[in-house]
Amino acid sequence: MSNSVSKWFAALLSVLLLYMVPAGESARRQDDLSRIVVFQSLTKFVDSVRMKGYLTPQMYQDFLRELEVTGNIYEVGMEHQHKKYEPDYEDSADPKTFLNSYTIVYDTYYDADILGLLFPDKELPPDDPDRMYKLTAGDYFQVKIKSLNQTPYILLFDALTGSNSGDKPAIAFPYGGMVLNEDY
Question: Quick check: pTM over 0.85?
Answer without folding.
Answer: no
